[in-house]
């Protein structure tokens, strides 16, 4: 009955019909404009100007020669190099501690996850008040203990690290959640077996069981965190506008400025292509490594 | 010893995590002068709180921003599910030409950040004269690769015999999607709704691109505009009151529906 050719044909047609709207919109709203960016990056198109001409890879050459963009890429790399490892290792540590606390674990998990749901723009302004150069709580505390007050967001040598701190604050909770989920899948008898071998607590137990068993989760967390850190935008746009003096300018903020403030669409598109390369590269690396691990492990 | 160190670290990390929430709430309840008093936390006062929250709601049109945010998130979620659920069902259960290609396209789409198609989309939207409209805020996101993927993963495990039986009972394929599959897939719907609402309520990038008029701003954009306007300099209390109000809906929802939301994030993360 269900196997007859007429039925099969009807189901093929239904499949095509049901998938068509999504396929069409996917092409129209995602793939077409994403390829459009590639095309625009090879032109000197400026929004509001009539016409555009092919200039080959000139936008990419301009990008690499531009000091501001080079600084922006460097800042992005430095920011990611701080926020990713700190938020991953701290989250792993906190997750292992939470796992050991028993009933209170749920409370800590809730607390750490709050920054993930909270509106980052609002929380960034709250941090700005906490870190205010004169009346902020941190500086009040610094002054009370006889230390110099700091201009956390306007001192060029501090601003990027301040944003990195807020980045870690935002990122840790999500990573804790993923690690806690990963830890709960480790079979208890592995710990018992390790205990027989003498690895019954603390570091040796972690090194022998937890870390190797958690490797796939750690890999996944690393990729997600890397993508999120190179995509930082809100804290810059709200708190520093890339300043002071370009000290906190990062790739998405530069891209936004070039495209939607200066309307230099060609250059901005070249930046967007590079950004896509970084993000897609990380995702593909994740798939390849994950695939290899699941095949050999 | 190690145990005490662990507890200390946990409590310290929790304190730092909560610090901006507590401070934001405290300053939103404080009178203008008391914030500069040099105390760690300003003293709360109900009269000051009333003034701060009233200022944020009336002088800054925060109520309007929140309405915009709710409208955008609500309409978007309905459209995303309406478009993605049939596609997810087709990918999971119906053999049609081009199915592997579409599934591959969905996987690739998951890796493309929104900022990449944003430039051509902006040019197109400006060209159509749609800047500063709800359409501009909503249209680019009505197709969600994540939603298609989550639905597809969920539907694949649905027993085909039940679907066949439904067909014998005279269900159309679309009827199967909406009366059988989607109700059975509520964890996937809840998971996706969580991710979608959190992303779009909190997003700053796209509203900054397509919106300039105050009455079209979403909550984060409105708050950011208030912060950088001259008014906020002398009124930190109202700024923090605004922060509390736009953060509260999602944080409170999270505290109420914690278990479903955490599971949702876990599912979204695996996508």
Automatic annotation (TrEMBL), chain A:
The keyword Magnesium does not apply. Its main location: membrane. Gene3D superfamilies: MetI-like. SUPFAM superfamilies: MetI-like. It holds the Pfam family BPD_transp_1. The keyword Translocase does not apply. One of its GO terms (cellular component) is plasma membrane. The chain crosses the membrane at residues 77-98, 110-130, 158-186, 206-227, 265-290. It comes from the Bacteria. Keywords: Cell membrane, Membrane, Sugar transport, Transmembrane, Transmembrane helix, Transport. Belongs to the binding-protein-dependent transport system permease family. This is Multiple sugar transport system permease protein.
TrEMBL record, chain B:
The chain crosses the membrane at residues 65-89, 101-128, 134-155, 176-198, 236-257. Its main location: membrane. It comes from the Bacteria. GO terms for biological process: transmembrane transport. It is found in: Cell membrane. InterPro entries: MetI-like, MetI-like_sf. Pfam families: BPD_transp_1 (PF00528). GO terms for cellular component: plasma membrane. It is a multi-pass membrane protein. Keywords: Cell membrane, Membrane, Sugar transport, Transmembrane, Transmembrane helix, Transport. Residues 66-257 form the ABC transmembrane type-1 domain. Belongs to the binding-protein-dependent transport system permease family. This is Multiple sugar transport system permease protein. It comes from Palleronia aestuarii. The lineage of its organism: Bacteria, Pseudomonadati, Pseudomonadota, Alphaproteobacteria, Rhodobacterales.
């Amino acid at each position: 009955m269900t196997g007859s050719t007429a039925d099969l044909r009807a189901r093929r047609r239904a499949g095509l019909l049901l998938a068509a709207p999504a396929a069409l919109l996917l092409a129209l709203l995602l793939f077409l404009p994403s390829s459009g960016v590639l095309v625009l990056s090879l032109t000197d198109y400026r929004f509001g100007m009539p016409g555009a001409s092919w200039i080959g890879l000139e936008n990419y050459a301009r990008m690499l020669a531009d000091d501001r963009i080079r600084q922006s890429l460097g800042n992005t790399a430095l920011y990611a190099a701080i926020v990713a490892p700190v938020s991953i290792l701290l989250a792993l540590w906190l997750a292992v501690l939470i796992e050991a606390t028993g009933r209170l674990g749920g409370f800590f998990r809730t607390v750490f996850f709050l920054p993930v749901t909270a509106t980052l723009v609002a929380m960034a302004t709250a941090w700005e008040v906490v870190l205010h150069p004169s009346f902020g709580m941190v500086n009040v505390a610094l002054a009370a203990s006889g230390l110099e007050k700091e201009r956390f967001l306007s001192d060029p040598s501090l601003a990027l690290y301040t944003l990195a701190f807020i980045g870690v604050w935002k990122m840790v909770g999500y990573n804790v959640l993923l690690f806690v989920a990963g830890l709960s899948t480790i079979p208890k008898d592995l710990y018992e077996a390790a205990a027989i071998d003498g690895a019954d607590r603390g570091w040796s137990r972690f090194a022998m069981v937890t870390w190797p068993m958690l490797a796939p989760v750690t890999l996944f967390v690393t990729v997600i965190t890397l993508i999120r850190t190179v995509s930082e935008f809100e804290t810059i746009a709200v708190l520093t506008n890339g300043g002071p003096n370009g000290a906190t300018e990062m790739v998405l903020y530069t891209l936004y400025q070039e495209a939607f403030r200066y309307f230099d669409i060609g250059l901005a598109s070249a930046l967007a292509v590079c950004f896509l390369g970084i993000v897609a590269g990380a995702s593909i690396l994740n798939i390849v490594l994950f695939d290899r691990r699941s095949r050999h492990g | 010893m190690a145990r005490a160190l662990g507890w200390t670290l946990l409590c310290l990390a929790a304190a730092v995590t909560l610090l901006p929430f507590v401070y934001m709430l405290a300053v939103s309840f404080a009178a203008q002068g008391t914030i500069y008093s040099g105390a760690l936390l300003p003293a709360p006062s109900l009269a000051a709180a009333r003034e701060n929250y009233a200022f944020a709601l009336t002088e800054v049109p925060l109520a309007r921003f929140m309405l915009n945010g709710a409208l955008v998130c609500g309409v978007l979620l309905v459209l995303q599910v309406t478009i993605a659920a049939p596609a997810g069902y087709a990918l999971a259960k119906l053999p049609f030409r081009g199915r592997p290609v579409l599934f591959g396209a969905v996987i690739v789409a998951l890796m493309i950040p929104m900022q990449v198609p944003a430039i051509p989309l902006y040019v197109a939207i400006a060209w159509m004269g749609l800047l500063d409209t709800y359409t501009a805020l909503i249209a680019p996101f009505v197709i969600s690769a994540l939603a298609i993927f989550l639905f597809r993963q969920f539907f694949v495990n649905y027993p085909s015999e039940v679907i066949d039986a439904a067909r014998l009972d005279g269900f159309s394929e679309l009827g199967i999607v909406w009366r059988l599959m989607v109700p059975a897939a509520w964890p996937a719907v809840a998971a996706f709704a969580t991710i979608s609402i959190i992303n779009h309520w909190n997003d700053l990038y796209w509203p900054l691109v397509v919106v300039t008029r105050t009455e079209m701003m979403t909550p984060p954009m409105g708050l950011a505009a208030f912060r950088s306007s001259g008014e906020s300099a002398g009124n930190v209390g109202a700024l923090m009151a605004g922060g509390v109000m736009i953060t509260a809906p999602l944080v409170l929802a999270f505290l109420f529906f914690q278990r479903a939301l955490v599971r949702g994030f876990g599912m979204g993360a695996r996508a």
